[in-house]
TrEMBL record:
<dbReference type="InterPro" id="IPR003682">
    <property type="entry name" value="rRNA_ssu_MeTfrase_G"/>
</dbReference>
<keyword id="KW-0949">S-adenosyl-L-methionine</keyword>
<dbReference type="GO" id="GO:0070043">
    <property type="term" value="F:rRNA (guanine-N7-)-methyltransferase activity"/>
</dbReference>
<protein>
    <submittedName>
        <fullName>rRNA small subunit methyltransferase G</fullName>
    </submittedName>
</protein>
<keyword id="KW-0698">rRNA processing</keyword>
<keyword id="KW-0489">Methyltransferase</keyword>
<dbReference type="GO" id="GO:0005829">
    <property type="term" value="C:cytosol"/>
</dbReference>
<keyword id="KW-0963">Cytoplasm</keyword>
<dbReference type="Pfam" id="PF02527">
    <property type="entry name" value="GidB"/>
</dbReference>
<keyword id="KW-0808">Transferase</keyword>
<dbReference type="InterPro" id="IPR029063">
    <property type="entry name" value="SAM-dependent_MTases_sf"/>
</dbReference>
Amino acid sequence: MAEKMNLTAVKQENQVMERHIEDSLAIIPPIQDSYTSCSNDVEFDNLRVVDVGTGAGLPGLVLAIACPGWQVTLVESMNKRCLFLEHVVNLTGLSNVQVVRERAENLGQDLGFREKFDVAVARAVAEMRILAEYCLPLVRVGGLFVAAKGHDPQEEVRNAERAIKLMGASVLKLCSGILCGDRNLAMVYGL
């Protein structure tokens, strides 16, 4: 891995911490609130999480480090990114991470992955309607899909409501501000 890989446009350490690490960690409290407020047969400390379109491993690698009881699957279609992710997983010794080289739209049709995850997360992948089509097939009945959005997600979620409903899910809540680390999250339940 001696060659330089351009995985993110953010280069300054303080911006990496804020825009990538803090944003990734901001996903945890809403997931925890959802799993502790609902009567659920799955414990928050033992979730199966899929990060769709993980790119450089964000938020998946950060979640795997912060929540070592979670089993995190990183889904990425680009081979060079997968090689990078596999290198990072081996280098760090993370035993709770699996890297899957596949397109999200194909993975949802694979019976080995379909409806197998408690939580699907996506960050900076696509608009909400498309994300729902990619992520919801991966979420088990009663699971959660969390989309991290960098802008006000209300209109985007409104535009995606029909697709979300057709896929058997509903919008749980939109979250922004202090609870979400000053970031916007759209949370959708899979039914």
